[in-house]
Amino acid sequence: EVQLAESGGGLVQPGGSLRLSCAASGFTFSSYSMNWVRQAPGKGLEWVSYISSSSTTMYYADSVKGQFTISRDNAKNSLYLQMNSLRAEDTAVYYCARWIAAQNAFDIWGQGTMVTVSS
Amino acid sequence: EIVLTQSPGTLSLSPGERATLSCRASQSVSSSYLAWYQQKPGQAPRLLIYGASSRATGIPDRFSGSGSGTDFTLTISRLEPEDFAVYYCQQYGSSRFTFGPGTKVDIK
Fold first, then answer.
1. Contacts of A105 in chain B (CB under 8 A)
2. Right CATH for B4-107 from 2.40.10.220, 2.60.40.10, 1.25.40.10, 3.40.30.10
3. Domain Ig-like: where (chain B) (predicted)?
């Protein structure tokens, strides 16, 4: 079964750091571009970051550029998001999502991991 | 950056009725890069439509997408109880992915 499973969320103080992970299974992870998408409590979806299959290309939303870093380890079938200088407005559920180029869409999503930035 | 606007914000309908959801872009979007997602409370989004009009795997044919340029539509021909949810349109362009604010379809 094709699956994505996020981990690493939790409560962090403003200014702190957190590293999210996303474990992929059931498909050839190294063949797909991957993304992080977040959703603040009671709000809509916000794309955060994209990484190509071989890590040659990364994109970031303006709201996190210079603050977050996306990476991946194809040998470990894992996607990461390093989040630094966290602010209250970064509080959200963070989803990893597979980008399927043949459809130009996010076709597989994880269940999400909650990040709460609060003192 | 392309901004997506969805209307209405909330659509109150009864099971069996037809739902028409609108997604309007601030500038022209390639149909190839326009998708629709469904999200139920406490769940991750699910891909419904890609390429503006193609149904994703396993999506019932009561869901259909149409449109081009700046105006796109998601239609649910006859609402089933499981269709009451929030629907988002999404586009990709110029190294950016953007989502609309969503339309909530609730039970009248």
1. 35, 47, 50-51, 56, 90
2. 2.60.40.10
3. 1-90
